[in-house]
From TrEMBL, chain A:
The keyword Transport applies. It comes from Gemmobacter megaterium. The keyword Transmembrane helix applies. Pfam families: BPD_transp_1. Belongs to the binding-protein-dependent transport system permease family. Residues 95-287 form the ABC transmembrane type-1 domain. PANTHER family: ABC TRANSPORTER PERMEASE PROTEIN HI_0355-RELATED, ALKANE SULFONATE ABC TRANSPORTER-RELATED, MEMBRANE SUBUNIT. This is NitT/TauT family transport system permease protein. It comes from the Bacteria.
UniProtKB/TrEMBL annotation, chain B:
It comes from the Bacteria. This is NitT/TauT family transport system ATP-binding protein. Keywords: ATP-binding, Nucleotide-binding, Transport. InterPro entries: AAA+_ATPase (IPR003593), ABC_transporter-like_ATP-bd (IPR003439), ABC_transporter-like_CS (IPR017871), ABC_transporter_ATP-bind (IPR050166), P-loop_NTPase (IPR027417).
């Protein structure tokens, strides 16, 4: 753990340095235009200083994004009129409120998707007809751009009276079932011929082979694919939120882009990234505990 | 004494032809063999001679395409469903998510022994293979030789009369192998089981067996069956005795005879 700190710090510092340099370079044009319009001569230090404090920069600098993130989370909730301290409920201008909305839809969709993916995998492994027929469809489903199909699913569901969390969760499930199904098929098929022969010598039933060998053997594969799946779920939810309005990080991203609020967009992206790492981390934690309890070595 | 014991495994004119993309492969050709109760039979020969295939036929993991094969007077598949044998594979194949005791318990769970009986049997076979006290360890915490001993314990746990072993010590070094060979003999003496043992080590075959079946490939067939004159009680240094060397010589001759067509 301690040994990994230095490389991480170096990489983070490098990213920040590149980010600052890129921001100055990209925002410089606006500063130069302003100066030309005003008829003043400016030097590189003026450009650099101005590029880091524009209100709507092409690329905001990290400390602007950090300040905005802080303002939309802690400051908004602790001191804002709509914040939880003064109003008793989370502010709909703050990121926490929207992140929680996204989180609940993602979690629900991920639950659906993972469950469906596991069932599909069991079907594929145990049923020859499903083995031959399901995978091409599952692959085809993933080649359709989610941005194209998400609004359609939402419109269709809306017309039959389903709205709110469910449509978002369905898009999230749509993206997460696939990696889970693929990983789980591989996991359920991981026992080798010798292990299956051995169960035959015990005259074990197919059910016993599933519960005692295939399912436990698939666990490392399942968890690896659950991590991919949960991240895919979050992407699905955010894409589903774009056309929806209401609460959610996706809605905030779209609102930010309507009004050219680049700093707010970046702060929202940071919130989405934190949410994603928290969810992947949570799956990782369950993985560690489960596999350790099952006795898999490291 | 062994010649008067009742037959346990009987093969008559056994043939097995695999259909492959390159045409039919004659894995077993006209194999006749009788294994009697309490025998320790080794199958020796170069790879492709059908020694493993024969063992798999006995275990009903392969089905012969001609001839007859009976195990305990039944067809191999009936014997398998009656759990007539324990099978030890080349690799220990222990489940990494189960402790050693848990692994040995696996066949007992599948066969529906109650919990108290399971524990009693696990203790007993752990003791038999000298792994008492290792029940709570996980496979990765044990050496290769200990893992293979655990897998033998697993095959012994449900007390089948026949023990089939397919090159169980092939992946182990010579020193560990010697020790395990001694242990297998002790085990055989203590349990009185009928053992079928596949190997490609001449000293191993001669040291362990009451009957040595020498096989040769293409097609897989028996070239010699040697009834060992060695006593059942065998200290390790019996391998320096004149009789031992004579049998080993005969095995080597048999193997060479099978190779003339190469």
């Amino acid at each position: 753990m301690r040994r990994s700190v230095l490389p991480v710090v170096v990489v983070v510092l490098a990213i920040l340095a590149i980010w600052y340099a890129a921001a100055v370079w990209m925002n410089a044009q606006w500063t130069r235009d302003q100066a030309a319009r005003a008829g003043v001569q400016i030097g590189w230090s003026d450009i650099a200083r101005d590029a880091m404090q524009q209100e709507r920069p092409v690329l905001p600098v990290p400390h602007q994004v950090a300040a905005e993130f802080w303002r939309l989370t802690w400051v908004e909730e602790a001191t804002g009129r709509r914040g939880i301290v003064q109003s008793g409920s989370l502010s709909n201008r703050g990121l926490v409120y929207h992140a929680l909305a996204t989180l609940s839809a993602t979690a629900l969709g991920f639950g659906f998707g993972a469950g469906f993916g596991i069932l599909l995998a069991v079907g594929i492994v145990y049923n020859r007809a499903m083995d031959m027929s399901v995978m091409p469809w599952a692959i085809a489903s993933q080649t359709i751009p989610i941005v194209a199909i998400a609004p359609m699913i939402i419109v269709v569901l809306n017309s039959v009276g389903i709205s709110g969390l469910i449509p978002k969760a369905i898009i999230a499930a749509y993206l997460s079932f696939f990696p889970v199904a693929v990983g789980m098929v591989k996991g359920l098929r991981s026992p080798d011929g010798m292990q299956l022969d051995q169960l035959r010598t015990y005259n074990a039933t197919a059910g016993q082979a599933f519960w005692k060998l295939r399912l436990p053997a698939s666990m490392p594969y399942l968890f690896a694919s659950l991590k991919v799946g949960v991240a895919a779920s979050l992407v699905g939810t955010i894409v589903a939120e774009l056309p929806l309005g209401g609460a959610g990080l996706g809605t905030r991203l779209l609102a930010g882009s309507y009004y050219g609020q680049t700093i707010q967009i970046w702060a929202t992206l940071i919130a989405a990234a934190l949410l994603a790492s928290a969810m992947v981390g949570a799956v990782g934690l369950v993985q560690r505990v489960t596999l350790k309890r099952m006795g898999f070595s490291r | 004494m062994t010649t008067t014991a009742p037959p346990v495994i009987e093969a008559k004119g056994l043939n097995l032809v695999f259909q492959t993309a390159d045409g039919p492969v004659h894995a077993l050709k006209d194999v006749d063999l009788t294994i009697r109760k309490g025998d320790f039979v080794s199958f020796i020969g170069p790879s492709g001679c059908g020694k493993t295939t024969f063992l798999r036929c006995v275990a009903a993991l392969e089905t012969a395409t001609g001839g007859t094969l009976t195990v305990n007077g039944m067809t191999p598949d009936e014997a398998r469903r009656k759990r007539a044998y324990g099978y030890v594979f080349q690799a220990a194949g222990l489940y990494p998510w189960r402790t050693i005791a848990g692994n040995i318990r696996l066949p007992l769970e599948i066969m529906g022994f109650d919990r108290a009986e399971q524990n009693r049997r696990v203790e007993r076979v752990l003791d038999l293979v000298e792994l008492s006290g290792f029940g709570k360890k996980y496979p990765w915490q044990l050496s290769g030789g200990m893992q293979q001993r655990a897998s033998i314990a697993r095959a012994l746990a449900f007390d089948a009369d026949i023990l089939l072993m397919d090159e169980p010590f092939g992946a182990l070094d010579e020193i560990v192998r010697d020790r395990l060979n001694e242990e297998v003999l002790k085990l055989w003496a203590a349990t009185g089981k009928t053992v079928g043992f596949v190997t490609h080590s001449i000293p191993e075959a001669v040291y362990l067996s009451t009957k040595i079946v020498v096989m040769s490939p293409r097609p897989g067939r028996i070239t010699d069956v040697i009834d060992s004159p060695l006593p059942r009680e065998r200290p390790l240094d019996i391998r320096d005795s004149r009789e031992f060397i004579e049998i080993a010589h005969r095995v080597r001759e048999g193997l060479r005879a099978g190779h003339v067509d190469d």
